[in-house]
User: Which sequence fits this backbone?
């Protein structure tokens, strides 16, 4: 295990953890319910670590990414249903990230939003064309580390640490009305979805193949998924906690993503504001790249095309056309004028519905000794895997009713 | 069976008209007014860039406008309150904006308990 | 022993990825051609690759839509081209000799070769 590679991998995971959906829901959860939803981020992160580790292990040992093996397990018809669901939910998420980028650039430059959406997509396509896979991931992940300003800002505003720590335990705040309880439940589902987005497993497992992972990389995989994702989730929790401290008492429930940057501006002024906005920009840009490539991976692997950015674009032509098409479709969605917050709501809703179909084949594959040999799931991975499968299935079933009954968390 | 349940939920969700249906927009507008106040307060302390402040004003106003035009009761007291917020200049005093947010919060609470 | 001796068609072969002798992706096992007859030994005679192979595996309306989008081309990979079956099907020859890389090569003509590191 190369210490430098491992450190860079962890830092990339940290900087790349938060995307526009987590930003939005962390801020709203904190302002609406105080510290009471920290446990949902913790639970989602553990689930993401469990399935992330499994998907990395499957990539390293079976040498095949999740979507290849998923079609084999589910068959053509159910595989197509999963593929379509995944493509739609990830495309909406990609559009939300592109819209988020354009918004943040608007806060920084004041230039028109549609122009910034177009420039963002051009910059993203250019970076994905020019840079090899490792440097695509690392550039955005490492620049996204500017988000650490949120964690430092939280310390600077002296939150009630005991109350904050109390939010780690699963709870239902006392005295909630029926409406508030439904809203609280909706937030739990939305946070789980935002943290455990399906595209993250597809991207992570395909990334393992891109980087040529083998049995020697299993420890790197495990450490990245636990330490990297764990530290990354602390950034999301810091955003939630600052929102609870700063926004909740003054009736702010952030309706636009830019409000979150005030969490860093309040203690640190303009420097904090700029670091927060730049951190958000690169974290969201990284997520735009991941969602875009995840869709291209999914369709290429499902139909057996050449794929990967370890090869030059002309060496995987249909894969190249696929990711460019996804990025352009995301831009088109943004240019229709649908607002970013709505895109985030739809992304979270569609993704949680698709999540059980994503994780079930992954579980079955990781359990299968004919593919995984001595690296198949042991008792802990099996137990946690099935536990989280039940959790995401319950969330998927509850998602649409809760969305309708709470008007998308609006109360 | 699942289809019938979904239909029922959709019907229930669309059934609420009037003040109850407007609750989410009153709640949004309350937050937007409070966010606007916070931006102006931080700007007055020199903590924000001019570009950020102008951009936030534009987006907050747009959001408030969307909430206002989504109301099913445009002649109601809360509609008038939201219109009064929209009449404020971009750099309105934070205290003034907060008073609107507080009044909208009271309206929101009374709609919720109705 | 042949890679196809005593194989379970659905759980061990159908819908597996195919790679050629240069380790390039060449599609998925979209369907399987069998030889033999009722009451006699069944053998896998070929793998069928391409959207044309979906016809027997989808509802008619879905196959109609698939044909509109992707056409109905199909390549036939004789069973004697199979070297190994595991998490992928490995072939003896290059994909081009088996008619497996046609679309990829057509699309490649449109992709610039410059600029990528």
Assistant:
């Amino acid at each position: 295990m190369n210490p430098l590679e491992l450190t860079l991998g962890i830092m990339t995971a940290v900087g790349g953890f938060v995307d526009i959906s987590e930003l939005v829901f962390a801020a709203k959860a904190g302002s609406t319910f105080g510290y009471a939803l920290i446990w949902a981020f913790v639970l989602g992160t553990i689930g993401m670590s469990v399935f992330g580790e499994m998907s990395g292990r499957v990539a390293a040992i079976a040498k095949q990414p999740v979507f290849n093996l998923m079609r084999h397990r589910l068959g053509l018809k159910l595989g197509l249903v999963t593929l379509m669901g995944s493509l739609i939910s990830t495309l909406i998420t990609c559009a939300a990230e592109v819209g988020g980028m354009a918004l943040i650039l608007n806060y920084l430059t004041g230039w028109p939003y549609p122009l910034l959406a177009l420039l963002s997509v051009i910059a993203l396509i250019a970076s994905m064309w020019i840079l090899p896979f490792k440097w695509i991931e690392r550039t955005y992940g490492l620049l996204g580390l500017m988000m650490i300003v949120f964690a430092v800002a939280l310390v600077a505003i002296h939150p009630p640490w005991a109350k904050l720590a109390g939010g780690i335990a699963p709870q239902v705040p006392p005295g909630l009305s029926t409406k508030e309880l439904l809203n609280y439940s909706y937030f739990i589902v939305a946070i789980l979805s935002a943290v455990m987005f399906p595209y993250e497993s597809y991207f992570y497992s395909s990334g393992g193949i891109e980087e040529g992972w083998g049995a020697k990389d299993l420890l790197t995989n495990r450490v990245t998924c636990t330490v990297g994702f764990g530290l990354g989730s602390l950034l999301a929790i810091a955003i939630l906690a600052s929102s609870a401290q700063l926004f909740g008492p003054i009736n702010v429930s952030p309706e636009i993503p830019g409000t979150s940057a005030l969490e860093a501006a309040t203690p640190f002024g303009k420097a904090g504001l700029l670091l927060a906005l730049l951190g958000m920009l690169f974290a969201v840009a990284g997520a735009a790249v991941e969602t875009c490539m995840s869709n291209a991976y999914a369709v290429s692997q499902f139909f057996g095309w050449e794929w990967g950015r370890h090869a030059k674009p002309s060496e995987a032509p249909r894969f190249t056309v696929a990711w460019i098409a996804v990025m352009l479709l995301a831009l088109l969605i943004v240019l229709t004028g649908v607002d970013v917050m709505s895109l985030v709501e739809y992304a979270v809703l569609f993704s949680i519905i698709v999540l059980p179909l994503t994780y079930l084949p992954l579980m079955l594959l990781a359990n299968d000794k004919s593919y995984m040999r001595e690296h198949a799931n042991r008792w802990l991975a099996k137990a946690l895997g099935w536990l989280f499968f039940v959790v995401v299935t319950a969330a998927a079933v509850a998602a649409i009713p809760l969305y309708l009954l709470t008007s998308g968390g609006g109360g | 069976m699942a289809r019938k349940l979904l239909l029922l939920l959709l019907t229930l969700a669309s059934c609420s008209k009037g003040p109850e249906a407007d609750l989410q927009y009153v709640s949004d507008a309350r937050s937007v007014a409070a966010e606007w106040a916070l931006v102006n307060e931080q700007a007055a302390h020199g903590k924000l860039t001019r570009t950020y402040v102008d951009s936030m004003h534009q987006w907050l106003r747009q959001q408030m406008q969307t909430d206002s035009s989504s109301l099913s009761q445009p002649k109601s007291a809360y509609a008038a309150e939201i219109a009064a917020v929209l009449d404020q200049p971009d750099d309105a005093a934070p205290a003034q904006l907060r008073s609107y947010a507080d009044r909208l919060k009271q309206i929101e609470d009374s709609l919720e308990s109705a | 022993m042949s890679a196809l001796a005593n194989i379970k068609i659905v759980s061990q072969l159908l819908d597996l990825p195919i790679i050629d002798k240069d380790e390039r992706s060449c599609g998925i096992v979209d369907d399987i051609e069998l030889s033999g007859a009722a009451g006699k030994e069944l053998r896998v005679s070929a793998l069928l690759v391409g959207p044309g192979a979906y016809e027997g595996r989808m509802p008619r309306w879905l196959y109609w839509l698939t044909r509109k989008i992707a056409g109905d081309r199909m390549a036939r990979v004789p069973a004697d081209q199979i070297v190994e079956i595991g998490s992928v099907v490995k072939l003896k020859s290059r994909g081009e000799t088996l008619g497996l890389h046609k679309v990829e090569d057509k699309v490649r003509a449109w992709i610039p070769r410059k600029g990528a590191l």
About this structure: Chain C is about 20% helix and 25% strand. Chain C has one domain: 9-108.
